Amino acid sequence: MTMWNEAITRRAMLRLGVSSAALLALPGRLGRVAHAATAPHFLVTFIADGGWDVTQVFDVHDPLDGTDGIDVDVPQAVSGLPPSQIATAGGITYVSNPATRPTVDAFFSAWGARSAVVNGINTRSTSHDQSRQLVLTGYLDPTRPDFAVIAARQTGADLPLPHLLLSGASFAGPFAGISGRIGGALGSALAFNRIPGHTNPDQRQLAVSTAGESYVERTLAAVDQLEGPTSVAPRFDEFGDASQRGDRLVRLASSLPRADVSAAQLATSLAGAFRSGLSTSVTVNPAGGFDTHSDNTQQNGRWEDLFTFLNAFLAGLAAEAGVVSASMLDETTVVFCSEFGRSPELNGDRGKDHHPWTSMLFVGKGVRPGVAVGQTDGHQEGVKVNFATGRPDDAGQVIDVQNIVAGILTLVGANPGEYLPGVRPFTAMLA
User: Fold this and answer.
1) Which of 83, 146, 201, 359 gets the most CB atoms within 10 Å of its CB?
2) Do 293 and 349 meet the contact criterion of CB atoms below 8 Å apart?
3) Whole-angstrom Cα distance, residue 146 to residue 170?
4) Which CATH code of 3.40.50, 2.50.20, 3.30.450, 3.40.720 fits the domain covering 31-182+256-419?
5) Cα angle at 117 between 311 and 82, to 5 degrees?
6) How far is the C-alpha of 278 from the C-alpha of 262, rounded, in Å?
7) What is the pLDDT of residues 135-181, one digit of tens each?
């Protein structure tokens, strides 16, 4: 283990930021979140990978209606399972099946009054990769940032790691310097061991492993080859505060969260990271396996896993103290999404295929409580809705991914016109 070398560390962290290695952030607003006079706004984005069947929970269609072209359940005669039913809890009407998805009922009973559901969102694509990018950014353009990264830029651009990518997909675009993947470059460069400082033994610092030193030196050499000293030098002034960010990252290393923990542990970890001023926005992929093309009863287990996780996470976050509020949930918005939905009718294998219409779940700060807005028709395609109320309106418009991304940006206090010019934000899910 190599001891912390201040000269190498400062230089390495600065240059890694220049090369978008996600250790450092671009200069931004002054003042740490933990010193905010008013409650800050944190964002946790959960991605359920694979494309979920929203008719089993969010997008309400009568499970017993065989005339509308939407199969909510595999027929009882085939599956042997009781049919789903329509239920209401916390002000939200949803699809319930206590026998196969009991944690869905537990969620709405506990958190429905703090939640909003948006149905009928057009993802435009049935490709996993394309739809994932569209749902998160509103564009099929790799240079566009996703809403979680933009939220970090808006609410914590000066912090050591404004956006934390614990797992799943993320698109940083021009803001790669403020987004870091824990366990990737950061995990390779830093060994998470606290050692006595070389000038003050009582001040614990972060150790860099031998592999980390090698990684840093290779990265620096690569940057020199690509850019040369002449072009790199002027950028040191532009990133003048980067070394300070690196120092703060060292001090806050113990706040770095992990993805491979329980939902309750993740809530505690993220709350600590938020309170310490490490970050304001986190992306996690805690649930997947929704890409089932046969035997649609497999979706039941996926929904059970998702809501088991979400129930425990929200309970943990609600029990954690916020920066200035009694509960961290009062300062945090949780967004749960997937890249698309599944087809309205069962296929020949009693499964469902990809479908370019989906739903999103919002919980916590800034969310209009206890509502389900947006709607799909008998073909499970979005209908025109009023963007202020979320109710069907022939004078309204269908909710596109760009509209929902613009709405999320509005929620976190960003200017959606800066990122999606001319796009009307869908705001019916906002308080």
Assistant:
1) 146
2) yes
3) 7
4) 3.40.720
5) 65
6) 21
7) 999 999 989 999 999 999 999 998 988 999 999 999 999 998 888 87
